[in-house]
Design brief:
Two copies of one chain form a homodimer.
Chain A (H helix, E strand, L loop, with lengths): L3 E4 L4 E5 L10 E4 L2 H9 L6 H22 L4 H14 L5 H11 L9 H31 L7 E4 L14 H10 L5 E5 L6 H13 L3 E4 L3 H7 L5 E4 L3 E3 L4 E4 L2 H10 L4 E4 L5 E2 L16 H4 L1 E3 L2 E2 L12 E4 L6 E4 L2 E3 L3 H11 L6
Parallel strand pairs in A: 4-5, 4-7, 5-6, 7-10, 8-11, 10-15
Antiparallel strand pairs in A: 1-2, 2-3, 8-9, 9-14, 12-13, 15-16
Helix pairs in contact in A: 1-2, 1-3, 2-3, 2-4, 2-5, 3-4, 4-5, 5-6, 8-9
Chain lengths: ~350, ~350
């Protein structure tokens, strides 16, 4: 079960349509960069690592199309495809990273467009493979922070569905479970798009991990009454100072955890680090359609007045002071994030921006 | 428009069925204590002050029924009705207060049961009238803390629908609006039952108060980015030390407000104070059916796997240290709650327990 992969027979990118889960496991196929952009925008695929891979495949598909049509201004067209891919979700840094890693291999002066397309596809496939290995390493590293008997509050979806496989924070929980540690997950539903209730709960069922769904509001209740040992989540972007830009609600959850001395663990690949930005307040926060807030139904009744307006920021900023541990594929950082992270990222420039 | 009232023609208690809002404004009629208990349990009526009035009318209806059937053990039957009324929602203290205020006027030795029923009904109607006056006073007192131009995050529903009229925290906002102060309300949706999106947004539309709905998760984003001047909510029970037991999510909201130096204003009638309990951690927190968490649909898709389990605490405890101002009908308390509240409650024993 892979969230996104290359279908060699169809010559298309195959991805799980996450909008239909948990009701139905079904796939969509993309044959152009544009279709990938659309899948990202409508959140058929989401999750920072998965977006990196989707972006890479999007460039490969765009290059494939150009190699068939061979327009004179093919490179400008490729750049424009890359731009719309990047802009389909502005906050997660992995998307731009995946796009640029493939783009950087394409030589504008080259005339062998089929060769360029082959190179692009190979690189995208390599990124997908690396994603599995990186996230497996994240799972191993993160699981070290989980003790037998832990009850963990988990925000959003950071499991296999957020990457090609394993994902980030949830991968660590899954690995701890596979090691035989008894874990219990309080899956917060994660409004507005309910990735917790829809996707993380579904993944818990796939792996047999004990869980219960709670509303986002109930996290404070459980953190305060001593029933929770850890809080785990991923990151869409981590800035140079260690601020975490992640799914909206992460900030309040982290505040409530810190107020009750519960460790806050953020798990992400080094590719989610953006050293070009000093702190989280400089990151553009995507505001998504208000329909995501207003379109719910409860017992057949629309949950808001017909003319209601809503605001819908998709992310928030959790200041580094609230994070107990940053778990990366290179190792765990417990303090002095800004110093240590530079060493990790600069030592392996191919992993950085 | 009254949330709950005596219908003299039908000799029944008439209440707005809040489960059908904002889709449809319709009423239910109760002719027995049992029907009132059921309306409370299923949340056709909710909100601390409204529950006090409902409880009072419930006792009156029970006494009316007994005065017609005249069983020998009528007083035991009355006590048992009172007990199930009180237990229909265990956390809000107003419910028990309303029930006991009517019950205390019934003399077990009396044989004029019609007279007792008349007394009970008069007292329940008086409680309803007092509720309007008290909440009007709350609105006046609370509005003093609202400045022209304020953007206010409001939790749950505390408007007219939470009382007979006016309500508590939202009444203050409505009064400020009627005074000509420009206010803007960020209505948090208040999962699981979405009283914010469903009821508070509907009330904003009734009074022409500018508002936008946000998810509960988004409150932290707006508190942190300087766009909010106040946080307002009500209380289901306030303990002797000033801890506030209120709709789940109040605690995290208050933490995020305090972390960003935004005033946290809690508005409630003196009848919501329970001096018999030292602090919030001693209050029984009602856990409601998991269906309230799991039964949502988004674009026709159930939001959780078919076999999912959920936990659903209806309230949480906000420690007194997080409250900037406790607004009561007797006045505003800004510090030393435990000393000052005793003076208010003891001076008017008929308002206390």
């Amino acid at each position: 079960l892979r969230t996104i992969e290359w279908d060699a027979e169809r010559k298309q990118v195959k991805m799980i349509d996450q909008r239909l889960l948990p009701g139905r496991l079904s796939y969509i196929y993309c044959q152009s960069g544009e279709q990938v952009s659309h899948a990202i925008k409508t959140m058929a695929i989401r999750g920072a690592p998965a977006l990196g891979v989707a972006g890479a495949f999007g460039v490969a598909l765009a290059m494939l199309e150009l190699s068939q049509k061979r327009p004179v201004d093919w490179y400008e067209k490729l750049l424009s495809s890359c731009k719309s891919l990047e802009e389909s979700r502005p906050t997660a840094v992995n998307l731009a990273w995946g796009v640029n890693r493939v783009l950087s291999l394409i030589n504008p002066q080259h005339s062998d467009l089929e060769g360029a397309a082959r190179i692009a596809l190979e690189e995208a496939s390599r990124i997908a493979e690396e994603d599995v290995a990186t996230n497996m390493q994240l799972a191993i590293n993160g699981s070290a922070l989980i003790d037998d008997g832990d009850t963990i509050i988990h925000h959003c979806n950071t499991g296999a569905l957020a990457g090609v496989d394993w994902g980030t924070a949830f991968g660590a929980i899954r690995f701890a479970h596979e090691q035989g540690k008894r874990v219990h997950v309080l899956v917060d539903e994660t409004r507005p798009r309910l990735q917790g209730a829809r996707l993380t709960a579904w993944e818990c069922e796939q792996y047999g991990i004990p869980y219960e769904i709670i509303t986002d509001n109930a996290a404070g209740y459980y953190l305060r009454n001593g029933r929770v040992q850890k809080v785990f989540f991923g990151a869409d972007r981590v800035t140079a100072n260690g601020d975490v830009v992640n799914k909206v609600g992460t900030y309040m959850l982290s505040l409530a955890a810190q107020a009750n001395k519960i460790p806050v663990v953020c798990v992400f690949p080094i590719t989610s680090v953006d050293l070009s930005v000093d702190n989280g307040d400089e990151v553009e926060i995507e505001e998504r359609p208000m329909d995501e807030v207003l379109s719910l139904e409860m017992n057949g009744v629309k949950i808001a007045p017909a003319n209601a307006k809503a605001r819908n920021p998709a992310f928030d900023v959790t200041p580094f002071q609230l994070i107990t541990a940053w778990v990366t594929d290179k190792g765990i950082i417990r303090s002095q994030f800004s110093q240590i992270i530079k060493r990790y990222v600069y030592n392996k420039p191919s992993d950085g921006k």
